Each structure stands twice: as C-alpha cells, then as structure tokens.
Amino acid sequence: MDLSKLTIAAARQDLDAKKYSALDLTNAYLDAIAQKDGEIHAYLEVWKDSAREEAKRADAMIAKGDIYPLTGIPLAMKDNILIEGRTASSASKILENYHASYDSTVTEKMKAQGAVFLGRTNMDEFAMGSSTENSAYGTTKNPRDTKRVPGGSSGGSAAAVASDMALAALGSDTGGSIRQPASLTGLVGLKPTYGAVSRFGLMAMGSSLDQIGPLTKTVADSKILFDVLKGNDPRDGTSLPDVASIAAPQKKVIGVPRSFLKEGTDPDVLARFEETLKKLEKKGYEIRDVDMPNIPYSLAVYYIVMPAEASTNLSRFDGIRYGLSAAADDIKSVYGKTRAAGFGPEVRRRIILGSFVLSAGYADAYYRRARAVRELIRGDFLRAFQSVDAVVTPTCPAPAFTFGSKSDPVAMYIEDIFSVPANLAGVPAISLPMGTVVRDGSTLPTGFQILAPHTREDILFKIGQELESA
C-alpha cells in the first residue's frame, strides 16, 4: 500500500474488499513512525501494542459486517484530548504523569466505530502557540522542510499526517490551531461551528473559542470525520442541539475582504490566493469584495479574550487536585512553586496577561471592551453572509517559518491574523492547499481558508471539493 496516496475513503474500500487487513494497515503506519518520527517528533507516545489489539478487533468487526466509516482506520490524537487510562499531558510538565480518568466524547464516538489509536501527538503547551515550539517535550519539525515549524498548536497532529505516520488526526482549534498547521504542512484542516463537536474531555484553553476538528489529506476525509464527531452532547453545555439541516440554495458568490488581506501578507501568498480565486471563477462562482470593517480588530480582541479565559481555566492546575505538586511549607507556596516549575514561559505569559485584563480597574478598559468588539465582528459576518455563500482569505500571512525566527511574541501572534475571526464569530472554517511558494530552496505549501455561516459545513465541503478538482 502507498501511504502517501492513501485516504480514509480509499482505505475504507480496501479494508472492506479485504485487500489488506486493519492489522496490516496499522503495522504499516507503525513501521512508518519507527522510521520517520525520530527526526520529525510528531508523537509524544506511540501505543503499538494497544493499536494492534484495536486493529484485530476492527478486523473481527469487518468479518462480521459490523462496519462503520472509521472501522480499522489508524488515527492520531492531540495530547489535550482525553482517552481513558492514557497519559494526557497537553505537552506540559505540570501534567507529565496525569492519566485520563474518562474518555472524551469524540474518543467515545471513535471507539464505538472501531477506530485504531496510534498515539498522542505533540503540541504547543496547553495549545498556546502557533509553531509547536512551546511544547515541554521538544519541537516538532515540518515534514516539508525540517528546518521549519509545522505550525501550531496542533503541529504534531499535522506533521503525523503530512509525513504519512497517520491516516488522519484530531486537533483542537482555539484561534487557528488546526487550520494554520494544515496550511503550513499542505493538509486540509477543519474548524467546525462552535458547539457542533462536543468539547467534553478536551482540556480547556479558551472555553468560548475551542473546537475539536480533523486534519486530513482531502476534503472528503474531513467530511467523513466531521460526520462521525458532530452531534449534541448533554455533558457539554455549549453543545448545539441536533436539528435536521436544511441547506439553503447557494448564491454561487464568494466574498473577499480585500482591505484586510493586503497589509503584512507575503506577496507570493497573495499571488497563490488570487490564482485560487480564478479557479473558483472557472467553477462558476462570482467573486465579490465585502466590507467587514471590524475584522481587522480580531487579533487584538482575541489576545484579550483568550488569555482571560485561559488564565481562568488553568487556575485548576495548582499542585493540589492533580498533576505536578511541588512541596512547600504553606499552600500559597505550593501553588507558586508548582506553577513556576510546571508551566512554560508562553503559558505563564498568557496567564499573567489574562489575569491583568480581568483585574479590577482594567476589566472595563480591556476585557469588556473586547467582548463588545467581538459582537461587532460577529455582525460583520452576519451581514456578509446575507449576500455571499462564503468568505475567503489566505489561512496564514506567510509560509512556514524557520525555528526561532519568531522569538518576539507579537510577531508570533500575527501569524494568527486570518484564522482568529472564525473562532471569535463561532463560524466554521476550513483550510485547504492552494499551491506552493519557494523559500531558500524549499517548496512550501500555502493554505486557502473558507468561512461559512453557522452550521453550514456543507458549504465548506462543497466549495473545497470543487477546488480540489479544479
């Protein structure tokens, strides 16, 4: 089997036709991990024995005709998604020895279908970063050029799929952490509508922003995983109700917020973007400029709202309830020593920033004002979607950068400029490859981002598949 060309859809056909077994497929990926991951470091832990047992159970299911879309499909899981009994560290020293006491909802759904779990993937600590350079366990390299980052925070999941060490993977997206690594490694990355996929069992960073989603090689595979993962979950208070989706007629109009794209975007990335727009025109779409006056404020709003929510969520990691605990003479010192030893510099930076914007005297000036502007950004999308099917942008302003080249935190945050609006507005967004650029002799992928109205992932899949066939 050629892992570089294999998709979930193709593997499903092959497994059902008995061309090879789920155990054969799993062993092929385990062999690929053994050969490649020493250099890439996509995985924090590989579950060889249990993966083979799961594959054998999947083969038994297939033999009985008890077949689902993910039966026997080898997948990787980001290290902040819980699997009962497995280590789940969120790539942090503070949770180095934490073992999940229950399954996340997405894990339950995948287990019920007979999926095979290959291992847990590296990430920016507590999903805080855009490069997977903030992991407490070392950086992950981009398979397209190992001198460059794979993006973040789901960089391990992206690198695993891009280097053919998993057929697909799950990540989490708070401000672009699925779409950005998808763009930098040449994959398809989906951030679903907020609430479409349960967050139960996902370690929270920004509770009003986080979403679990897939990293895959094709749009069709992204749809397969989304269809398995979506659905109401009574254990998640933000979960959307299950309603029959009624697809409205498409207008065949694509909106482009051009004034938002020009400043700071790499000229070669803009050139690939314009070429992709021409492909859509050939598919019968009208390309129309849209005025979205508030989305240029998205980055500033995000880096107030997200740290505020993160500082609150991470207060539970205190050395008392679970995880690392540093001995000290009094409880206040236990808190301080534990968090100083357990959290990396980026996590500490965001906790301090979040605590500041929520503090008395500053909450009105920063946090509440950011929430008000967030509503204006949502309004921009609502107005735009009255006249267009989808809004499109580049996924990232530039291709993958070299390790250490974004040591200034603000320079790193700017990498999220096109991805954070979708999380602030709660709308679904997908990134798919839109061609390559050459940097220092390396051919690097770029990403095309499509954003659709709430619960209209069907529009993303339709446009995405049309682009794939262009």
Give the structure's gist in a few sentences.
It contains 16 helices and eleven strands. It has helices at 8-16, 22-40, 48-64, 105-112, 155-162, 179-185, 219-229, 258-261, 267-282, 298-313, 331-342, 345-358, 363-384, 409-413, 420-425, 457-468, and strands spanning 43-46, 74-78, 116-121, 168-173, 188-191, 211-216, 253-256, 286-289, 390-394, 429-439, 442-451. The model has no long low-confidence stretch (mean pLDDT 96).
Provide tags for this entry.
single chain, 470 residues, alpha/beta, Amidase signature (AS) enzymes, eleven-stranded mixed beta sheet, 16 helices, globular
Note the topology:
Elements: H1 8-16, H2 22-40, E1 43-46, H3 48-64, E2 74-78, H4 105-112, E3 116-121, H5 155-162, E4 168-173, H6 179-185, E5 188-191, E6 211-216, H7 219-229, E7 253-256, H8 258-261, H9 267-282, E8 286-289, H10 298-313, H11 331-342, H12 345-358, H13 363-384, E9 390-394, H14 409-413, H15 420-425, E10 429-439, E11 442-451, H16 457-468
Parallel strand pairs: 2-3, 2-4, 7-8, 7-9
Antiparallel strand pairs: 1-3, 4-6, 5-6, 5-10, 9-11, 10-11
Helix pairs in contact: 2-3, 7-16, 10-12, 10-13
Task: Describe what you observe in this structure.
Strands 1-3-2-4-6-5-10-11-9-7-8 form an eleven-stranded mixed sheet, with helices on both faces. The radius of gyration is 21 Å and the shape is globular. It has two domains: 8-229, Amidase signature (AS) enzymes; 253-290 and 389-408 and 416-468, no CATH class. It contains 16 helices and eleven strands. It has helices spanning 8-16, 22-40, 48-64, 105-112, 155-162, 179-185, 219-229, 258-261, 267-282, 298-313, 331-342, 345-358, 363-384, 409-413, 420-425, 457-468, and strands at 43-46, 74-78, 116-121, 168-173, 188-191, 211-216, 253-256, 286-289, 390-394, 429-439, 442-451. Helix 7 packs antiparallel against helix 16 (457-468) and helix 10 packs across helix 12. By secondary structure, the protein is of the alpha/beta class.
